[in-house]
Amino acid sequence: MPKHRRNNANVGDTYVSNFIHDHLSTAQNIQRKYGIPAGVVLAQSALESNWGRTVSGNAYFGIKGRSPNGKSTTFSTHETVNGVSVATTGTFRAYSSYAEAADDYAAMLKHNARFRSAFLHVDSIGFATEIARNHYATDPQYGSKLISIIQSRKLDQYDVR
Predict the structure, then answer these.
(1) Which residue range(s) make up the domain with 13?
(2) Is 67 a member of any domain?
(3) Which is it for the CA torsion 5, 7, 9, 13, positive or negative?
């Protein structure tokens, strides 16, 4: 997952508000279609892209490889290998829009048996905990970072009830 982002705590409230405003409808549509809480969709895309500030090729969710349409983008990242953060370059799925990225992200989670347990949770915190526990990212702190974003920005208020 991309680590070229800055600490989300340093991102100004206006930019965060704009990010949420711009992507909330898509996040809620993803929840209705796939069952992934909107707060998780927003938190992951915020974490992976530094609230959209360091996104390349609309790779908001940091999914490695090529997208279903064959597009990819390459950028610097960090991976945790044997407990050590290592700088590297990665190839990530690229998209034409946030909505396309979110739909592919959701389909990937929904159809990957590794993340099946996450779908037992309808709340953002439970869902985020499960995808982190099942190694969405190599960062051992990924789950706590996601939960921190969800809680500090109250993103679970956007979950469709």
Answers:
(1) 8-54+97-154
(2) no
(3) negative
What CATH number should be reported for the domain holding residue 134?
1.10.530.10
Q: Is residue 77 part of a domain?
A: no
Q: Is residue 84 part of a domain?
A: no
Catalytic positions are 79, 104
The dihedral sign for the CA sequence 127, 130, 132, 137: negative
Specify the number of domains making up the chain: 1
Question: For tokens 């969405």, what's the residue?
Answer: 136
Q: What is the pTM of this model?
A: 0.89
Residue in 42, 35, 38, 50 with CA at minimum distance from that of residue 1: 50
* 26 assigned to some structural domain: yes
List, in sequence order, every residue forming a beta bridge with 91; answer none if it has no partner. Answer: 74
Per-10-residue mean pLDDT of the chain, 161 residues long, equals 41 85 98 98 97 95 92 88 89 97 98 98 97 95 97 96 85
Residue 59 CA to residue 55 CA, distance in Å, equals: 6
Phi, psi angle pair for 140, to nearest 5°: -65, -15
**What distance in Å separates the CA atoms of residue 127 and residue 123, rounded to the nearest whole number?**
6
Could you give the CA distance from residue 161 to residue 155 in angstroms, rounded to a whole number? 13
